[in-house]
From TrEMBL:
SUPFAM superfamilies: HemD-like. Residues 22-238 form the Tetrapyrrole biosynthesis uroporphyrinogen III synthase domain. InterPro entries: 4pyrrol_syn_uPrphyn_synt_sf (IPR036108), 4pyrrol_synth_uPrphyn_synth (IPR003754), UROS/Hem4 (IPR039793). This is Uroporphyrinogen III synthase HEM4. One of its GO terms (cellular component) is cytosol. One of its GO terms (molecular function) is uroporphyrinogen-III synthase activity. It comes from Chitinophaga pinensis (strain ATCC 43595 / DSM 2588 / LMG 13176 / NBRC 15968 / NCIMB 11800 / UQM 2034).
Amino acid sequence: MPSNKRYRILSTRAVDPELVSSAAEQSVDIIPQAFIRTRPRVDDRLLQQVQQLLKEKVTVVFTSVNAVNAIQNLYFRILPADAVTEQANMPGWDVYCLEGATKEALSRTAIPHNITGTAANAAMLAQTIVRNEEKGPLVFFCGDRRRDELPDILRQRNIGLNEVIVYETTETPAVTGATYDGIFFLSPSAVQSFFSVNHLAQHTVCFSIGPTTAAALEQHTNNKIIISTGQRMADMVQTAIFYFNNIN
């Protein structure tokens, strides 16, 4: 990367300041601007439902960090952090989840669980569930704007799936008023929100967190789309740095 050339990337989601600083040292300036807002659901019916599920040996599915964080929030409302006896008596959940950030978020929770299977995206996770001959019903913790791939595949195979909406997504579009060398997209909802009020310059590269988000991008732009090497924001940042280091 030429020392006199700096690259500007807009991130449609917040970025850890340490990642921003690390990228800046390699001539990549990341400007965060959230294009969606997520809000965990908290109501009596949902609390009772999750409380009951914690008492059961169930198989659950997570395809987003937001769902994991929402369940963690409910868990601490149901069970105080010092309730050691109650935690010990929980059977624990068998969990299918996405690799990367979702799995890492689960590892940080206090919820008793065992990872049964992982995959890079929702469609592949559904195929893993099918291969493991799960009969269901499985519990799918998701948002109110979840994608159809996983539920459709499981229902085609007659695998029962109970969807529990634990967070809500709201688009927060904003006109950028600037030109960027690259843009980070981490969900189809962020893609929709961004393009509802913005257009891309021809040279702007779209960096996608995965194939599902890339497919959403293809519906809005013909610009170059590069899929991140992993599911974490750190992977996205490194993918962009590698790209800009090697385009000349």
